Amino acid sequence: MATIKLLIADGKEDWLNNLKRMISSVENVFLVGEARNGHEVIEKVKELQPHIVLLDIDLEGIDGLKVTEILAKENQNVQTIIMSMKSSPEYFRQAMKSGAKDYLIEPFSNKDLDDAIHNVFNKWLKDKAELFADDSNAKVVSFFATKGGVGRTTLSVNLAAALAAKGKRTLLIDASLQFGDVALTLDLHPQSTISDIVEKDEFTIDGIERRITKHACGLEVLAAPKEPALAEAVTSKHLQQIIDVIKPLYQFIIIDMPATITEKELAVLDKTSLLFLVATLEITSLKNTKIFLKTLQDLKYDLDKVKIILNKDTPDVGIDRPQLESGLGVPVYASIPMDSNLVQISLNKGESFVLKSPASLISRNIIDVAEKLIGPSKKPVNTSKSAILRIKDLLFGS
């Protein structure tokens, strides 16, 4: 089922907050933004491209009826539902004449709201299914390791940077909520973090975007809370909401997860398209990785999503790649060579080595993983006619 993107507009702050609470319980609907006057509605529609606008008839600046009329003329893919305390049939007729698809009389119930949104959307969708054929929906790639020190954050940061450098709109989420290092690794100083979204209850596209920090390479980062105490307020539901709301804006969402298995990590795994399980050629890493794979199997998790990344690959340490694959019972998806000097210098400088030293062996291997994720580029079909056929067209007509 397609996700319904909803924009709400009302000048009454209390009613606007009440609407947000009601919408949070409506299935398959995500609030992309809010407006408080008619001018703001028109601007927000251009920016956020919602499917449905739910607006008050008595908006300031430009009233709801005029806004509906403007939207109906300028953007036929936006459906409007008007809210009003006025129950007169005359107002209903005016709303329909302006281009509204439904009219909700305040106060209304959660069911009334649910029915109105889904009925309007489903009627419109009947002849518009093609609009969702290429709907952007990010591939969610999560990095997990069973212990610290194996290079999980280094890999997630550099893979995200490699994707962004290739022109893919990429968001890197630091889900290591208590002690996340993503921002430090990139020398970023975020003004806002994931905990601000929760504190302000801003689970909308524009609300989340305000909390995102941008790196010079184009990579966007949602940082972990600044203090461990703030992490407690971020729940598993919050993490899932953020991923669901923001997915339509990106091609890739990379998530750096902590080395724990709690309800929060399981919530992230539920939203993950591909899980990169990072291991090293060390007996404790092999043991813990094997236990984790067994845990996933017991949880009925789709193991086809799980790919082993062998990090710090180096010869002559007593365990080699074939032994690792034999011990885990799964093949290695990608092998990243050891380059402790480059990695340590990059970390201390707050730089991505994929961006600073793209020709190094370790960078090339991570770029190879990025290219695997992106997949082969589609070659344009040559539709030009041969010279003989063009001459024929000129002489005899096409």
What is the strand and helix layout of this fold?
Layout: E1 4-9, H1 13-23, E2 29-35, H2 38-48, E3 52-56, H3 64-74, E4 79-84, H4 89-98, E5 102-105, H5 110-125, E6 139-144, H6 152-165, E7 170-174, H7 182-185, H8 194-200, H9 205-209, E8 213-214, E9 220-222, H10 228-231, H11 236-246, E10 252-256, H12 263-270, E11 274-279, H13 283-298, E12 306-313, H14 321-328, E13 332-337, H15 340-349, H16 353-356, H17 361-374, H18 387-396
Helix pairs in contact: 2-3, 3-4, 6-17, 11-12
Q: Which CATH-level-2 architecture of the largest domain?
A: 3-Layer(aba) Sandwich
Radius of gyration: 25 Å
Oligomerization state = single chain
Give the CATH topology of the largest domain.
Rossmann fold
- Secondary structure class reads alpha/beta
CATH superfamily of the largest domain: P-loop containing nucleotide triphosphate hydrolases
Strand coverage percent: 15-25%
Largest sheet: 8 strands, mixed
CATH C-level of the largest domain:
Alpha Beta
Strand order of the largest sheet: 8-9-7-10-6-11-12-13
Average predicted confidence as pLDDT: 89
The number of helices is: 18
Q: What's the total count of β strands?
A: 13
First CA to last CA: what distance? 44 Å
Low-confidence stretches: 378-388
Helix content: 40-55%
For the record, the count of structural domains works out to 2
- The shape, in one word, is elongated
